[in-house]
Amino acid sequence: MRRAIVLQHAVHEGPARVGSALRRAGFELDLRALHAGAPVPTTLEGAELLVVMGGSMGVADVGDARYPFLAPELDLLRAAIARDFPTLGICLGAQLLAAAAGARVYPNLTGDPPRPTREVGWGAVHFVRSGREEPALEGLDAAELVLHWHGDTFDLPPGATLLASTLSCPHQMFRLGRRQYGVQFHVELDDSDVETWLAADADYVRGALGPDGVERLRRDTARYLPRFRERGDRWLDRLLASMQVRG
Fold this sequence. Notes:
Layout (H helix, E strand, L loop, with lengths): L1 E7 L7 H9 L2 E7 L15 E4 L17 H14 L3 E4 L1 H9 L4 E3 L1 E2 L4 E2 L2 E9 L15 E8 L1 E3 L6 E5 L7 E4 L3 E4 L7 H10 L1 H8 L3 H31 L4
Parallel strand pairs: 1-2, 1-3, 3-4, 4-13
Antiparallel strand pairs: 5-10, 6-7, 8-9, 8-11, 11-12, 12-13
Helix pairs in contact: 1-6, 2-3, 4-6, 5-6
């Protein structure tokens, strides 16, 4: 069976539906719980795909003794980029992939004067290329409601193709080479995962959405997730298929 390395940064931010999609595609998951002390692989040999999950830390924390895994992750991603090795980065993973490719990662700023802005909750993401132009986006509408949960953003890496944007965060999804994707929003979560995140990160949500933010996000999840679960699973299958294209 083919092996997919999955790098996890927090106990409540596992692969979830990405893991299910990998198994559907015939992969065995080599899950590395970095937050629990598992080492970052020093090589990609013996694997066919790399997934880097999200986390509350950021690229600015590289060198922080609390997160000793971040620097070797960047080294591993640089090696993956050099080989156009199939790679999927989600949220923090997308930021790390962008940084490894030479892009700047920094707090998301909006307004005049600019101020740090957390993009949290369900909102529209706009795809700037069609499924005909970009097979990984086949079957998606020009805009889809997705779940956002981040405070940092990144410049588009040199040579990357922008695939999706939001009004408050222009760089939501990009492709490097032919088989590497960074996705800032969360396609992997199910309703039980959202509840776990709300329990672990309630203050962050309230800081972004106000005192009733947790309740609002819970209501929106009940409303929007059923449709996105079905579309998101089909999209993950197409995305993983696109990552495995040779040549």
